Amino acid sequence: MLDRRLVVVTGKGGVGKTTVAAAIATAAAESGRRVLACEVDATGALAAALGVGPVGYEPRRVGPRLDAMAMDTEASLREYLRRYLHVPAVGRLAPLAAIFDFVATAAPGVREILTIGKLAFEVRRGAYDLVVADTVATGHVVAQLAAPATIGELVPVGAIRDQAA
Question: Would you say residue 1 lies in a domain?
Answer without folding.
Answer: no
